[in-house]
Amino acid sequence: LELEETPLELGGEQGRWEEERLRTAALSFGAKRERELGVRQEQERYQLILEEEEMIDFVSTAITMKGTLSEKSHPPLSADLKKQSIQEVRRSLPIFPFREDLLRAITQHQILVIEGETGSGKTTQIPQYLMEDVSLKLLLIRSGLPRRVAAMSVAARVAEETGVKLGNEVGYSIRFEDCTSERTVLKYMTDGMLLREFLTEPDLASYSVVIIDEAHERTLHTDILFGLIKDIARFRSDLKVLVASATLDTERFSCFFDDAPVFRIPGRRFPVDIFYTKAPEADYLEACVVSVLQIHVTQAPGDCLVFLTGQEEIEACCEMLQERCRRLGSKIAELVVLPIYANLPSDMQAKIFSPTPPGARKVVVATNIAETSLTIDGIIYVIDPGFCKQKSYNARTGMESLIVTPCSRASANQRAGRAGRVAAGKCFRLYTAWAFKHEMEETTIPEIQRTNLGNVVLLLKSLGINDLIHFDFMDPPPHETLVLALEQLYALGALNHLGELTKMGRRMAELPVDPMLSKMILASEQYKCSEEVLTIAAMLSVNNSIFYRPKDKVVHADNARMNFTVPGGDHLVLLNVYNQWVESGFSTQWCYENFIQFRSMRRARDVRDQLEGLMERIEVEVVSSLEDSVPIRKAITAGYFYHTARLSKGGYKTVKHQQTVYVHPNSSLFEEQPRWLIYHELVFTTKEFMRQVIEIDSGWLLEVAPHYYKSKELEDSSSKKMPRKQGKTKDELG
Ligand code: CDP
Ligand code: MG
After folding, report:
1. Which residues does 688 contact at the CB level (< 8 Å), separation at least 6?
2. What angle do CA 309, 517, 633 make, to 5 degrees?
3. For residue 435, what is the enclosing H or E element?
4. Cβ count near 684 (within 10 Å)
5. Residue 184 CA to ligand 1 centre (angstroms)
6. Which of 47, 377, 454, 543 is deepest in the core (most CB within 10 A)?
7. Closest C-alpha among 608, 257, 248, 588 to residue 443
8. Which of left, alpha, beta for 221 (phi over 0: left; psi -120 to 50: alpha)?
9. Are strands 9-10 and 13-14 parallel, antiparallel or unpaired?
10. For ligand 1, is residue 375 a contact (CB within 6 Å)?
């Protein structure tokens, strides 16, 4: 990891460049060795001793460097900053001097676009100004944010600032979690939840102000909200619409909302020095860990923010950091390592905002949620590997996958900007200056153009919007994506051949989950296994974070995981885990002993309770299939028949499009390799992996999706060799 300094214009301010070279060869060598040795478990003792020595070497190099660096480094953060009272902090935000002007502008205009640097106070302050202003006679304010964590943490912050209990006047509502009451005036919610509000209240009659926050994120839901809200604003002149955005693309928002005025909050920003690596990094996770430790031992006080792509990576990085700090012990100052990602439970989130203890350094390891949605005070150093996880959608094959891709230059600059909020900062980019200029896109493509639209089309259809081709999109989705969404909904039985919503479709739209998952749940009625399918749906929605695999107990963890294996596939393993946990009396201890993440299980239970609550509304009786896994697997097939793969030479091929895919090594069917599989999702890492798979009988496909599959397609020489299974299916078909 070698760093190169290249001047770069950032936010109009010329970066300041220091003569500085972070020496890292020793450390990265140590890290590489460690990884090589890590595989060879029989040499564990030797490995520990060696690492210890290497680490000591590194620390002594670093301390000498610290001496030479100190006079150039930035002054320590003012301790007073941390001691300011809440009201003082509020008054110190960039938005505060514009309070009166802003309120006037809101009174004068129905739709207002508000632009301001991240952290200027848009999300937390604007609704409070509105609440404090008696002349505005507010009914309800809804603020739609693209992320769960942001909605929760912001609501908590605002409740604190206004001195009310969270859930009373100020609350939040996110999928599967509602923290509001009769008294709630200000409700922070995800953009997806705001969208669902249209189902119960198509003209948003009980709202007086709607804020579309983080508009620049251009999530699918935000884009749809734009169209819907623009439409209702025309006949609800009393509704105020505020579109809040970071300093990106605001002209386009104004233009879309019939030239709505833009209110600009001037930003305050300190210069940020940007460093690039000289050569590309082979392992950016490792490079992050190394960089954090370097900053920690060589740089002046100030907290550090690392951008990674997702929960698994973040957890791995935190573990690696903690592990190395443990080994270094008292040789280094305390390093407080904190993760933050969308599914992190709320009790854990609060920690990232708590002040860093004196003498320690905080390092927050985040997804791009910290790019614009969350502001953590005191960040001076940013480490940016330059990647993000993006949904990508192939409209030809209908395959959606999450891919780790280089982020855009706009993102990279937002990330760097996070270092310069409280003082001059530094941003370490773990890629080359060349890559920044030539390999990164200028801006991120809006989600609507790279995702499956099934969910949104179903929702729009149930709002009575039939002509989707002429819907007022800010950036229309590709035509073939829309067509494919309609086809898929037709195949799922949600739309009839005229493209109208069926009774099934209406029931599917009631569930706040993807169409395939809601179809699976609805199909469980017919197969009399709703009890089990609800559990599976809940477990699937907690996102692959059930099993815990600490680095120092890999063997134990893997054994524990093996013990849950049941025939049939991963969905059934998840069911088994959940059922055993129920038997243990939802025990924390049980989770601990079995290497199961308690937090994930608790969330799965919440999700399950919520879904079960909705069953009555869509008239599905909750019954159990008892020990029989066939009905359960059929219900899954009824929802996910699109995701069928067949074993062929050299791997699996998807049935409809002949794409080559592989069973994920974590799967319980990794070694078994059954002939027919249904997968829950595809992830692309080194290749296209199917995550969460079950074995099915090809005959079921004809049973659950007769208008999608033709028996000829499902024939192959090998299936004829399996008369037992074929026969069984026919019996069941009766
Ligand atoms: O929306 P915008 O990016 O303009 O700013 P904001 O999210 O309203 O943040 C304004 C201030 O509130 C920042 O200084 C944050 O650090 C602080 N804040 C906080 O302390 N805790 C939160 N959960 C959210 C914001
Ligand atoms: Mg904000």
Report:
1. 401, 659, 660, 661, 662, 682
2. 110
3. helix 433-438
4. 15
5. 21
6. 454
7. 248
8. alpha
9. antiparallel
10. yes
- Single-letter amino acid code for the residue at 640: Y
Instruction: Return d(Cα 606, Cα 346) in angstroms, integer.
Output: 14
Query: pLDDT-based confidence at 387, cuts 50/70/90?
Result: very high
pLDDT category of residue 75 using cuts at 50, 70 and 90: very low
Q: Which residue in 507, 534, 389 sits closest to 451, CA to CA?
A: 389
Decide: 577 and 605 in contact? Cβ < 8 Å: no
Scanning the structure block, which residue is given the tokens 């059930």?
Answer: 546
Taking the CB of residue 208, how many other CB atoms lie within 10 A of it? 18
What pLDDT score does 398 carry?
67
Q: Residue for token digits 């500085």?
A: 20
Burial (CB count <10 Å: 0-12, 13-18, 19+), residue 101: exposed
Residue nearest atom 10 in ligand 1 by C-alpha distance: 121
Q: Does the C-beta of 120 come closer than 6 Å to ligand 1? A: yes
8 A C-beta contact, residue 622 and residue 537: no
User: Which of the listed residues 89, 114, 118, 124 should we mutate to test ligand 1's pocket, taking the one with most ligand atoms within 8 A of CB?
Assistant: 124
Nearest-atom number in ligand 1 for the CA of 421 is: 14
The average pLDDT across 583-589 equals 95
Average pLDDT over residues 702-729: 64
The H or E element containing residue 661 is strand 660-663
Using 50, 70 and 90 to split pLDDT, how confident is the model at 65?
very low
Residue-level pLDDT at 143: 63
Q: How far is CA 395 from the centre of its chain?
A: 22
CB of 527 within 8 A of CB of 634? Answer: yes
What does the mean pLDDT of the chain come to?
81
CA distance 275 to 17: 9
Which residue's structure tokens are 């949605």?
A: 373
Q: According to the model, what pLDDT value does residue 35 have?
A: 36
Residues linked to residue 569 through DSSP beta bridges, in sequence order: 694
Contact call for residues 363 and 333 (beta carbons, < 8 A): no
Whether the Cβ atoms of residue 702 and residue 634 lie closer than 8 Å to each other: no
Can you name the residues that pair with 497 across neighbouring β-strands?
A: none
Report the amino acid identity of residue 336: V
pLDDT in tens, 309-337: 988 899 899 999 999 999 888 888 999 99
What single-letter amino acid sits at 38? Answer: G
Q: 467: how many CB neighbours lie within 10 A of its CB?
A: 8
Q: Which helix (H) or strand (E) holds 111?
A: strand 111-116
Per DSSP, what are the bridge partners of residue 272?
A: 425
Mark out the alpha helices in 511-657 (DSSP H runs): 515-526, 530-541, 554-562, 570-583, 588-593, 598-615, 630-640
648-677 burial by CB neighbour count: b if 16+ within 10 A, else e? Answer: eeeebbbbbeeeebbbbeebbbeeeebbbb
Nearest ligand 1 atom to the CA of 244 is: 1
Distance in angstroms (rounded) separating the CA atoms of residues 44 and 61 = 26
**Nearest residue to 255 via CA among 37, 20, 472:** 472
DSSP labels, 288-304: HHHHHHHHHHHS-S-EE
The SS3 call for residue 502 is coil
Q: 730 or 114: which carries more pLDDT confidence? A: 114
- Collect all residues with Cβ–Cβ distance below 8 Å to 550 and sequence separation of at least 6: 319, 557, 595
Ligand nearest the Cα atom of residue 247: 1
Whether residue 46 is predicted with pLDDT greater than 50 in this model: the reply is no
Cα torsion at 359, 363, 369, 373 (round to 10°)? 10
C-alpha separations of 198 from 206, 218, 551 in Å: 11, 19, 46
Q: What share of the chain is helix, strand, coil (3-state, %, to 5)?
A: 45, 20, 35
Q: How far apart are CA 232 and CA 266, in angstroms?
A: 31
DSSP 72: T
- DSSP class of 213: -
DSSP code of residue 362:
E
